[in-house]
Structure formats: C-alpha cells, structure tokens
C-alpha cells in the first residue's frame, strides 16, 4: 500500500485559479499558508470536508478528507446559519457565509458607535471592558462597560456595572436598537415593565469566576457620602488605610494628617477617625444606609448621640500584632544621637529604651517602641520638627511599661522624651502616656466601655494596681494640668501626687521634665520629684 501523501503534497496537486472565491474557509486558510501551491496553473479546485464515521461506537472524531472536482461550487446565499450538505454528514463553510458574518458584524459595530461606545479596538466573540459613554467611568474612570458581539454577528450587547449608572442595551443587524437606562427607582424608568422586558435580550445564565472578570470595587456611593461630610476624596485608595487632613480640626496648628480613612474593597462600608486628642471626630457610612458621624468629646455627656448610637457607629476594631522585621527599624544615626544629646539624653539611655529610627514617607523619623514583657506592641514616630504619628490599630499602653512592673512608686509624664529625661535624673520607674493631653477636663466620668481616650489605663491596670504612690508629672500648661486631673480621677486621688514645676520668670514656669533637665540639670529635676505634693481631693 503506497504511503499517505502529506497535506502539502495534496495542495501542490491542486490549482485554484478557476475556483475564484468559491473555496471553503479551510481552503482559504490553506491558500494563505501555502501561496506557492495555489499559483500553479490548472482548472481543478480542492474542498476540505469534515467526515464522520457512523459505523463505530467510539466518540465521533473529525477527520480531514480531500475531494477534487472540475466545477466550482454553487453560490450559497448569506444566512445566519452555515449551509449544510445533504451528502452524508458533511458541513461546508463557504466564503459567502464568512462575508455575511463580517457584514453583520459591521452593522452591529456601527450601531454601537452611534450609541457612543468606542469600538476602535474590538474583540469579536469575547467580553471586553470599556469606559461607559454615559457615566464616563465615574470619578475613578473605571472601565465598567462590558461589551460583547457574537462571532456570527447576529447580536451585540453591553452593560455598565457601575451601581449609579447601570446603562445597558442590545442591537441586531436586522432589528431595531433597544437600549435603556436602568435607574435605582423603577418608577423613574422611561419605559413600562412590559417594554423593558421586551427590550432585554435572551439571557443565558453564566457561572463567572472572579479572577476572569477582573472586577473593580463599586464604591461611588460611599465616596459621595464621605464628600458630603467634608472629607477630601480626590486621591482615595480603596481597601487601604489613608491619612488626610481632618475637615473638623484642620489638623491643628501643625496641619497634621490626623484623619484615618478606610473603604472596604467591596464598597459595603467606609469609616474615618481623627486621632488628634482635641478632636476625635469619627463616623462611618454605607451605600444603602445613612451616614453616621459624631464629634467625640472628652465629656461623654456632651456627645450628640446616646450610648447605644455611639456603640453602633464605631467600627469593629481588630488589634494588630506588630513584628519588628516588618517595621524595618534601625539604630539611630549620628545626627539623631546629637539631637538627643542636645537635650541632655545620653546614648546609653537611648539604647536601653530601644529608641530607633525608620525611613517613613521619604523622611528619617525617630521611632519610640512600646513594649510589654519586651514584646513589641506599638510604635510611635516623631520628626525632628515634633510632628507625631503612630502605627494604627495597635494596643494602647504606657511607654516604658516594663519599667514599672511591681513598682510601689510610679511617675507618669506626658511624652517619651520626658520619660527619658526622668531616667537621666535617676528615675527608671517612669512611664509616658501614649498620646497628648485633653483641651479641658470633662464634666462627667464615662464608664470603662466608653473611656476610649484613656484605654491605656485599663490595659495596664495590673501594672498600676500594686502602686501605693503615683506622681503625676504632666506638663505645666492647661492641657497638661487637665490630663493630671483626668488621670487622678481614674487612678484614685488618694494615691496621686502632683509636681510643682520651678519658675522660669515671674509669670512663667518650666513646661516639662526635659526643659528642667536642659535648663537646670538632673539634680533640679530630682528635687522636683522629691517635692511632689499630695493631690487635692
């Protein structure tokens, strides 16, 4: 039996000059692949057929068969479906059918262009994402319009998946364009329910996978509601915490970016909190709910809502567990060591308290690490210009907490540098509050569940309970004295003592421990602690 000829040798045996455009689609592909074979003279043509065996129980497997003839194939009129030959089970795909499909696709594309859809780059038979001409992708320019054209050109449809738009429609080459704007309120639609139902194309239920769709969060409603609260949402990042200037307190005198804003990736919720002690503004919003916001004051009795409303407005907080390798902390550089030495704080004290540095926002900042049993719990950052920030969602504790374990006498100061200054004066049994002082004393003492500002006192209760004397060495300014009053009310005034800072002039006092250390020396600071007086009851 002679060997079976190859496809190339079969094509070389045939000529296509007399066939013209009567070849099949497969033959057209072969003609493009082997142009030299079809340049040969002759009056014959070749057709490639799909033949199936009907005498076997095995699955039907397509085989290629070649047949030759001298007469060209009869012209087949364009139709939505491919023509079928009754000779056996063969299917012949003609060039006329391909041209008819291309003509229908062209009509669908032109009708979509009239709707404003950009069809410059199109993929037939595949879903494609484009910018919606109606909503223009919203403020974030999302490619929210899904466009699809069938391979045979009989149907094209589009849908905008942005919740505030929902524009969709369909078109056919031999039909009338049907499009409508889907609104949230069905009563505002221009068409009746029957008309809308008639306009919708036949829907086939798909089972999509998220990784195939490349979905983007639809958070426009949350963003718009936050804008109404005065929050700048021009450069919002979805699914990540973002710091910006609070619209209520304007960041204070230092213009701090104290407002933390977060929007969930699925757009179901957005919340914000200002971490400035004198502000504390916070709230949340949902796309299908009402924005809840309130001003958190030191006095719980001055809050706008009831205790139940405040509790409902607060987002569920998850305490982070920090790892030192994630913070990329390093030893202090010579410039920062010099900065502390000018404030009379030695390198030995800095090393014992694990004072480090970190590159943050393209700046080198000082890092004060908060530890419990030598385990990292939180971290607070300070620039040389005395702008502060800290790791969010961490447990609030005293700075230097391990130094007061089982201590009978405890000193509480208002800043990390003041705690280091006390150590230079010989007092290691000293801790610092984690954030600043209140503007004034609150009128009413809240219960433990709502005492969020002084949560660090409750978190460190086991360290404070054994102490019989607590010396409050807060700043001499009015907020510092208000802080001393708030601490004494919670710790018990019967065991609290208050320092009296020495006079700087007839009308001024030294502000804090570090100012006394720098101006008067460690011995003067020690005398201030020794001269503390019992807190008035």
At the first level of CATH, what is the class of the largest domain? Alpha Beta
Evaluate the radius of gyration. Answer: 39 Å
Q: Name the poorly predicted regions.
A: 15-26, 40-92, 176-202, 213-218, 294-315
Shape: elongated
Main-sheet strand order equals: 3-4-5-6-7
Label the structural class.
Answer: alpha+beta
Shape-level CATH architecture of the largest domain: 3-Layer(aba) Sandwich
Compute the separation of the termini in Å: 117 Å
Total of domains: 4
Helix share, percent: 10-25%
Count of DSSP helices?
16
Report mean pLDDT, rounded to a whole number: 76
Approximately what portion of the residues adopt beta-strand conformation? Answer: 15-25%
Counted beta strands: 21
Question: What features would you describe in this structure?
Answer:
The protein is an alpha+beta fold and 537 residues long. It folds into four domains: 87 residues, no CATH class; 103 residues, no CATH class; 94 residues, no CATH class; 211 residues, Dna Topoisomerase Vi A Subunit, Chain: A, domain 2. The protein has 16 helices and 21 strands. It has a five-stranded antiparallel β-sheet with strand order 3-4-5-6-7, covered by helices on one side. Strands 8-9-10-11-12 form a five-stranded antiparallel β-sheet, covered by helices on one side. α15 packs across α16. The longest helix has 20 residues. About 22% of the residues have low confidence.
């Amino acid at each position: 039996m002679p060997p079976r000829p190859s496809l190339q040798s079969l094509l070389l045996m045939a000529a296509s000059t007399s066939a013209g455009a009567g070849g099949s689609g497969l033959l057209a592909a072969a003609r493009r692949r082997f142009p030299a074979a079809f340049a040969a003279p002759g009056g014959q043509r070749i057709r490639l057929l799909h033949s199936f065996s009907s005498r076997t129980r095995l699955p039907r497997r397509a085989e290629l068969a070649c047949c030759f003839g001298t007469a060209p194939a009869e012209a087949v009129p364009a139709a939505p479906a491919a023509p079928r030959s009754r000779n056996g089970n063969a299917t012949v795909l003609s060039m006329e059918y391909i041209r008819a499909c291309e003509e229908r696709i062209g009509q669908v594309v032109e009708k979509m262009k009239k709707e404003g859809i950009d069809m410059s780059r199109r993929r037939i038979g595949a879903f494609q994402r484009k910018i919606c001409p109606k909503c223009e992708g919203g403020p974030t320019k999302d490619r929210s319009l899904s466009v699809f054209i069938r391979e045979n050109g009989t149907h094209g449809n589009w849908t905008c998946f942005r919740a505030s738009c929902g524009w969709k429609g369909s078109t056919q080459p031999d039909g009338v364009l049907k499009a409508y704007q889907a609104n949230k309120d069905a009563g505002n639609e221009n068409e009746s329910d029957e008309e809308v139902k008639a306009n919708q194309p036949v829907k086939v239920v798909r089972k999509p996978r998220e990784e195939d769709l490349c979905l983007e969060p639809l958070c426009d409603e949350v963003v718009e509601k936050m804008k109404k609260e005065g929050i700048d949402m021009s450069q919002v990042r979805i699914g990540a915490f973002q710091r910006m200037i609070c619209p209520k307190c304007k960041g204070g005198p230092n213009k701090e970016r104290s407002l933390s804003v977060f929007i969930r990736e699925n757009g179901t919720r957005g919340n914000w909190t200002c971490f400035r002690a004198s502000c504390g503004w916070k709230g949340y919003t949902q796309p299908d709910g009402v924005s809840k916001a309130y001003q958190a004051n030191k006095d719980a009795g001055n809050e706008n809502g009831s205790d139940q409303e405040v509790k409902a407005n607060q987002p569920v907080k998850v305490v982070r567990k920090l790892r030192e390798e994630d913070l990329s902390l390093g030893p202090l550089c010579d410039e920062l060591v010099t900065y502390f030495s000018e404030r009379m704080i030695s390198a030995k004290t800095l090393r014992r308290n694990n004072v480090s540095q970190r590159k943050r926002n393209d700046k080198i900042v000082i890092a004060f690490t908060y530890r419990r049993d030598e385990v990292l719990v939180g971290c607070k950052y300070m620039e040389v210009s005395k702008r502060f920030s800290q790791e969010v969602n961490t447990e609030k504790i005293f700075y230097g907490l391990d130094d007061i374990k089982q201590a009978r006498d405890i000193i509480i100061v208002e800043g990390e540098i003041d705690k280091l200054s006390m150590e230079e004066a010989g007092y290691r049994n000293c801790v610092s509050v984690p954030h600043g002082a209140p503007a004034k004393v609150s009128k009413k003492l809240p219960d433990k569940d709502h005492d969020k500002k002084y949560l660090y006192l409750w978190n460190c209760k086991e360290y404070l309970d054994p102490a019989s004397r607590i010396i409050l060495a807060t700043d001499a300014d009015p907020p510092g004295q208000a802080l001393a009053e708030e601490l004494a009310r919670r710790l018990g005034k019967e065991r609290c003592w208050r320092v009296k800072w020495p006079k700087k002039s007839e009308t001024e006092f030294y502000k804090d421990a570090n100012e006394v250390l720098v101006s008067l020396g460690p011995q003067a600071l020690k005398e201030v602690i020794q001269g503390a007086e019992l807190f008035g009851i």
